[in-house]
């Protein structure tokens, strides 16, 4: 699966590429409007990460051209502007999702994964994660020993991890994903710990290996296929 | 025109008019009086003539009928007698009136003898003229005093009207409002100058303020990208399996700092947007629904912090921007949660046109004066940026909601009041 990262800040673009480049994704980059347009003309991508403010043009313009050309790539807008109007405009023009800078790479991973799932499998989609089977439409989970009953938050947590396999994800990023940015919490992620603990227990009871590893002081890692690939 | 010129013009106009009117009045009054006096003289002469005719049965000589009476008396002295004037009066029984006279005594020498001459002339005419002059003058003075009083009351008020108008407009001036101030035209030079200066000054202030806001907004936007880079790099660093405990701790504080900056930045942007009236769209919502929604969102957090939350919610509609209302409730509930004590409580009371959020917390009341100021913090080293209540205040401001804070029985209460809508 190919991703195109259209982002003029090379440093940020590099981070995204490094994070997303694993078994499933091949990332290409474009740093300005013209090169982005060329690449979009020439190649097909599974998903496009699009910055709105670009040198020599606007990301929204690219989005319009893409839709006019009848392309079906999923588009995730990343923008420094956090305003409802911008979001609505982006989504109205055919973007699939909108993420405001500064974001957690894990959040980007989860959103891209979600877009790809929607685009690739169409309606009824089944996500296979090692021994786990997720029915994303019915929001049900099966382990090796049959169905696993998860709460809404635990389910969301699992889907979030599925978009960030073998990656260390901070507690902060998880909390922001599950509870949103609006509820300002004290630096106390105890309530997150409870959810993780329960999910972990339920997965093991459901006949799965212990996928969720706690990384000291930092966060968690959803490990599949034994040892994760070392980072380049 | 100068204010003084205008005032003088009005004042002179009125004074000159009064004097013109009084001059005419004088003229006609005195003329009338003299004629009346003359007529009375005629009556007296006729009366005297009648008396003479009755006594002598003949026509009297002309001098007899004259008002002027002349008496001569021989003094029998070698020196001339004194010369003096005298006012006197006597009662005329034929006319039934008290008459005033003026007498003039003077000596006159005929051959060797000195005579005392006495001229007697009635005073009636002059006396009446004097009376009229005095009365009319007093009247004129009264009219002038009354006129200046009215000038001061009405004209001055009218003259200063542009000034008071300008002051009223200035009172309504608020930085950050988009429209420039419009002062009504005036032909008074001083007020024109004042209005121009006020317009220039407020225009300049508004423009500077706009530039400052633009700067804040741009700066905030520019900060987002480097922040995104730092955060993404940290996200990559933690993927490294070989991190020591010490390194993890260091990264954790770096994460914390980034979170704080990014939150601060978002708050500043939000404030700028509210000031720029980018949330002008409003709709009427049922607040009870919104609050219930929020309660379920916060429930988990409260359970975890062992806070007892009770709510007494009545239905009440509110007109506001939905996004802002959401932020408002979020900030107030977050505050009530964050500044609470373990095992404390939060009470919500929603009634028509008002909501009260009461929570346990610090045992001392918050500083009423500084509470809603930006970067106000209860404790200086707090992890919070101190913009939450400032944002709440700003939202209330633009949504026509009144906010108040109270401290009673060691409980903090924030109350919002708004004009109840009949739905």
Low-confidence stretches of chain B: none
Distance between the termini of chain B: 56 Å
- Helical/strand content category of chain B: alpha+beta
Strand-residue proportion of chain B: 15-25%
Gyration radius of chain A (Cα, Å) is 18 Å
Runs of chain A with pLDDT <50, length 5+?
Answer: 226-232
Compressed to H and E, one letter per element, the order of chain A equals: EHEHEEEHEHEHEEEEHEHHEE
What is the third-level CATH name, the topology of the largest domain in chain A?
A: Rossmann fold
Secondary-structure element order of chain B, as H and E? HHEEEEHHHHEHEEHEEHEE
Arrangement of strands in the largest sheet of chain B: 6-8-9-11-10
User: Which whole number gives the mean pLDDT of chain A?
Assistant: 84
Instruction: Please give the radius of gyration of chain B in angstroms.
Output: 49 Å
The number of distinct β-strands of chain A equals 14
Give the fraction of residues assigned to helices of chain B. Answer: 40-55%
Shape of chain A: globular
Determine the oligomeric state from the structure.
Answer: heterodimer
Quick one: CATH class of the largest domain in chain A?
A: Alpha Beta
